[in-house]
Write a structure and sequence with these properties.
By secondary structure, the protein is an alpha/beta fold. It has ten helices and twelve strands. The protein has one domain: Phosphatidylinositol (PI) phosphodiesterase (TIM Barrel, Alpha-Beta Barrel). Magnesium ion binds next to strand 2.
């Protein structure tokens, strides 16, 4: 009798666990929230505002640095053939995003970030050398502190630069810090103190056990940039924590009640 009760209790626990399947967060890639259609532009302040208004879990943006050490929000290293890293901020004063905004400084962007409702997924871009990367990380952290955003619940860090990930690990313990490159196993990433991975979905299709291997080590798992229905469903089935996408409305529809808000 006692044995039966124990088995029944275990069965109930399994049923409870499976009915509470882990939820999946959505992050707008470069702030996208169908923003092209709405007249918004990637990495624009307006796109972040739209993600916040729509209560998207996360909004990703890219951080670069000009030669006179101004931290700006932009994806590509070049603007109209001019390298951001080897030109001064003033050289871009006439540049306009597709929606008419000027090139935002990180400080201007974080003024919108302060309004909250959406986690800032901060991609720190590789720079010309380690000294520039270290300076950019330090200045970005200082800007987050100035805006009251230096909080693991308000910002996470991602980077293709292993040096940047290691500097974040040293400076910002307790913050989610994900490596983007996809060329290290979860075990290798964690061995160097970096506590998360954010890999292209093709990496997880090739190495599906990496999600569990990361979770077993209490690491967070994000995946980029998933736009097609089959790939979205496959990543949900793999139990990733967060999907970065250009199609947040489509992912929201597929997730339904499983969306992490
Ligand atoms: Mg990015």
């Amino acid at each position: 009798m006692r044995r039966f009760v124990k088995i029944a209790a275990v069965a109930a626990l399994v049923a409870l666990t499976s009915s509470c399947a882990p939820k999946v967060a959505i992050t707008a890639h470069r702030g996208f929230w169908n923003c092209e259609e709405a007249g918004y532009a990637e990495n624009s302040i307006k796109a972040l505002e739209l993600a916040q208004q729509n209560r998207l879990w996360g909004s990703e943006f890219d951080v670069h640095m000009t030669s006179d050490l101004v931290i700006v929000v932009h994806h590509d290293r070049d603007i109209k053939g001019v390298n951001i890293q080897t030109h001064d901020y003033a050289d871009f004063k006439d540049y306009r995003l597709k929606n008419g905004e000027k090139l935002p400084t990180l400080d201007e962007y974080l003024t919108q970030g302060e309004k909250g409702g959406t986690v800032l997924v901060c991609e720190l871009k590789p720079q010309i050398d380690k000294a520039h990367e270290d300076y950019m990380v330090d200045q970005s952290v200082a800007a987050l502190k100035k805006h009251g955003l230096y909080d693991p619940k308000k910002v996470i860090f991602i980077s293709f630069s292993w040096n940047i990930c290691q500097r974040i690990a040293a400076l910002c313990p307790g913050f989610t810090n994900q490596f983007l490159s996809g060329n290290k196993t979860p075990e290798e990433v964690l061995a160097d103190g970096v506590n998360g991975i954010d890999y292209h979905y093709g990496v997880f299709q090739k190495n599906p056990t990496w999600v569990k291997e990361a979770h077993d080590r209490k690491m967070s798992v994000n995946v980029w940039t998933v736009d097609h229905e089959d790939d979205i469903k496959e990543m949900i089935d793999l139990n990733v924590d967060c999907i970065t996408t250009n199609e947040p409305l489509k992912v929201r529809q597929i997730l339904g009640g499983k969306e992490q808000k």
